[in-house]
């Protein structure tokens, strides 16, 4: 590319055509980091259950900045809000206030304090600078034999001013979110009343157990992952398992929900029995009429009582989805696919790549059978999964396509029209359009 | 000593045959390296070291393995690639349950995609329980613990 062009070059109206440069422009990506990831948005950093004891920490990421999620002693009152109860979870940036060193190198562990190896600046778990060597200088004797002090920090050096960057932290039903921004609204408002019930359905009042992690590096723009999980069009076409076994396809009872700003979404659906329904399987090459499992324990679905909840949009009735996929802007996907539960964390690495970290979990009151079931169904998901290995692949091929054409190209997201309304079916790309409507506003393009 | 050496050679031969079947894309042969109820697990070192049960792939018995083979040959869409397994000499660790042999071997798998240079794809070790059967050595369990902190986008074929 030559000289940077103006960013205000989104040619069409609306958000149903996304220009390729939204995925390939390096400068635009730098602005995304500032305006989205470091701006007034809440980013997922982890689960409370990952750091159960005081001093437990784990590294995470907000945008490209590495942060430390750590459990501190519970403070009686919070400076920011004297009435609130303190959850004890802190998120601080992994960057020493002295010379900028990314001092914490072990991905997880338990510590009493954080010490930078370079000059041993020491921080409390909440990121406050506790002390540093030779702050008051080194006592010595001068040429005339008088006691003196060599070096030391200036007299007005205030340790309070030189702690780690402390992020604002919000903990919601065991999920930990953080933001660098003082302007971000409270987390529950940020998520909004349309999306919240779907998060509460999975997490509220439950203790989680950690089952483990899978990590993959996908050579595509970070937004493509959000689009993938806001796109109910592809699963019944790309993923044989979904269309053949009725886990997700166009003839199911489904709903597309979004927050008032269109940035977060939930795709909700209820599994049917699969098999042939010509309206959705005819000509679909991924549908395998004769396909049967040699070992059906891979798909040993057992409905759980918590699946059924009062229907948030139809008071007085109940709804029992088998699938809910939440996309929480900018970087979190929460998956309930039958009995498989996970968070998926998008960690951008430049405009053309991101790391995708899957954290699988269950509930503390799961029996052994249910844990085994969740682990078996994990074969469907993740970087090697029967139905999600191919998502990473098509994201890579999308990015390759955008890159080879360059300026002037655009994607087309007009299934179900060009508007950004919620729907009671899945034959639509409305959630992608609504995210880009919000994205355009934030980015000013 | 001779018996021990012979056992090691037999395990090396098992590993060589296993690697060749995968690299030559004879995927239908792959479940046959296991006992009918044999276990195959591909797990990140992070989970293994911390005692977390999640695996990238976890299959119980030849039936599930055949389902995986169907998946990699018929249903999972992915860019084409070749693998090349380089497996180090087996190390016999001792006797396992039911008279089985416990052994491990280091491996490196390289991936080559059309038009691309070869790349280091997955690196780790096999931790095995092996049974001597009339049909030769069979895997009662193969746990592949991989060091690679990131899967390079996707992982389709068994390791």
From TrEMBL, chain A:
Alphabetical UniProt keywords: 2Fe-2S, Dioxygenase, Iron, Iron-sulfur, Metal-binding, NAD, Oxidoreductase
Cofactor(s) it depends on: Fe cation
A Pfam family: Rieske
InterPro entries xrefs: AhdA1c-like_alpha_C, ARHD_Rieske_2Fe_2S, Rieske_2Fe-2S, Rieske_2Fe-2S_sf, Ring_hydroxy_dOase_asu_C_dom, Rng_hydr_dOase-A
Keyword Iron-sulfur: yes
Rieske domain location: 42-140
CDD domains linked to this entry: RHO_alpha_C_ahdA1c-like
MF-aspect GO terms: 2 iron, 2 sulfur cluster binding; dioxygenase activity; iron ion binding
Signal peptide bounds: none
Family of the protein in this entry: Belongs to the bacterial ring-hydroxylating dioxygenase alpha subunit family.
PANTHER family tied to this protein: CHOLINE MONOOXYGENASE, CHLOROPLASTIC (PTHR43756:SF5)
Protein name stated in the entry: Aromatic ring-hydroxylating dioxygenase subunit alpha
TrEMBL record, chain B:
The organism's place on the tree of life at top rank: Bacteria
Record-level Gene Ontology MF annotations: dioxygenase activity
Entry similarity comment: Belongs to the bacterial ring-hydroxylating dioxygenase beta subunit family.
The protein's name: Aromatic-ring-hydroxylating dioxygenase subunit beta
Xref: Pfam families: SnoaL_4
Keywords associated with the record: Dioxygenase, Oxidoreductase
Stretches assigned to the SnoaL-like domain: 3-142
CDD domains cross-referenced by the UniProt entry: ring_hydroxylating_dioxygenases_beta
């Amino acid at each position: 590319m030559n000289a940077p062009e103006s960013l205000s070059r989104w040619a069409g109206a609306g958000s149903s055509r996304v220009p390729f440069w939204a995925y390939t422009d390096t400068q635009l990506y730098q602005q995304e980091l500032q305006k989205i990831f470091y701006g007034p948005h809440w980013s997922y950093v982890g689960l409370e259950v990952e750091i159960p004891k005081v001093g437990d920490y784990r590294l995470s990421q907000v945008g490209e900045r590495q942060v430390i999620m750590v459990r501190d002693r519970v403070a009686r009152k919070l400076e920011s809000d004297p009435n609130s109860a303190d959850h004890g979870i802190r998120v601080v940036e992994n960057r020493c206030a002295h010379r900028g060193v990314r001092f914490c190198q072990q991905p997880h562990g338990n510590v009493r304090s954080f010490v930078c190896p370079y000059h041993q600046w020491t921080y409390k778990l909440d990121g406050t600078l506790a002390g540093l060597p030779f702050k008051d200088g080194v006592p010595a004797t001068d040429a005339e034999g008088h006691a003196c002090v060599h070096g030391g920090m200036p007299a007005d050096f205030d340790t309070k001013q030189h702690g780690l960057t402390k992020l604002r932290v919000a903990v919601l039903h065991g999920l930990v979110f953080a933001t660098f921004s003082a302007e971000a609204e409270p987390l529950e408002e940020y998520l909004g009343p349309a999306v919240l019930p779907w998060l509460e359905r999975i997490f509220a009042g439950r203790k989680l157990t950690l089952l483990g992690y899978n990590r993959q590096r996908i050579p595509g723009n970070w937004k493509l992952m959000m689009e993938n999980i806001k796109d109910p069009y592809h699963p019944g076409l790309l993923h044989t398992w979904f269309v053949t076994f009725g886990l997700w396809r166009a003839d199911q009872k489904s709903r597309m929900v979004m927050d008032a700003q269109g940035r977060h979404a939930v795709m909700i659906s209820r599994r049917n029995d699969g098999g042939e329904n010509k309206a959705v399987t005819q000509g679909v090459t991924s549908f395998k009429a004769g396909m049967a499992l040699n070992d059906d324990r891979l798909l040993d679905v057992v409905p759980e009582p918590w699946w059924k909840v009062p229907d948030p949009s139809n008071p007085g009735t109940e709804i029992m989805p088998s699938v809910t996929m939440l996309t929480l802007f900018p970087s979190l996907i929460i998956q309930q696919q039958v009995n498989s539960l996970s968070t998926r964390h998008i960690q951008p690495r430049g405009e053309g790549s991101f790391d995708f970290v899957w954290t699988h979990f269950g509930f503390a009151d799961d029996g052994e059978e249910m844990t085994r079931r969740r682990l078996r169904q994990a074969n469907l998901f993740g970087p090697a999964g029967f139905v999600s290995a191919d998502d990473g692949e098509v994201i890579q091929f999308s990015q390759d396509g955008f890159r080879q054409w360059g300026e002037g190209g655009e994607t087309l997201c007009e299934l179900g029209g060009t508007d950004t309304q919620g729907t009671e079916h899945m034959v639509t790309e409305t959630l992608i359009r609504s995210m880009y409507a919000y994205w355009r506003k934030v980015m000013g393009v | 000593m001779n018996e021990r050496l012979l056992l090691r050679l037999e395990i090396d031969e098992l590993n060589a045959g296993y690697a060749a079947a995968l690299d030559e894309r004879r995927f239908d042969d792959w479940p046959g390296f296991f006992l009918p109820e044999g276990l195959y697990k591909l797990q990140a070192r992070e989970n293994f070291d911390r005692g977390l049960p999640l695996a990238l792939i976890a299959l119980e018995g030849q039936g599930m393995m055949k389902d995986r083979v169907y998946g990699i040959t018929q249903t999972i869409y992915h860019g084409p690639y070749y693998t090349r397994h380089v497996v180090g000499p087996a190390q016999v660790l001792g006797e396992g349950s039911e008279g089985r042999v416990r052994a491990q071997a280091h491996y490196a798998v390289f991936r080559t995609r059309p038009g691309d240079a070869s790349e280091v794809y997955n690196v780790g070790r096999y931790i095995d329980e092996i049974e001597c059967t009339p049909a030769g050595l069979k895997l009662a369990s193969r746990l592949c613990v991989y060091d690679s902190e990131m899967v390079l986008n996707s992982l389709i074929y068994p390791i």
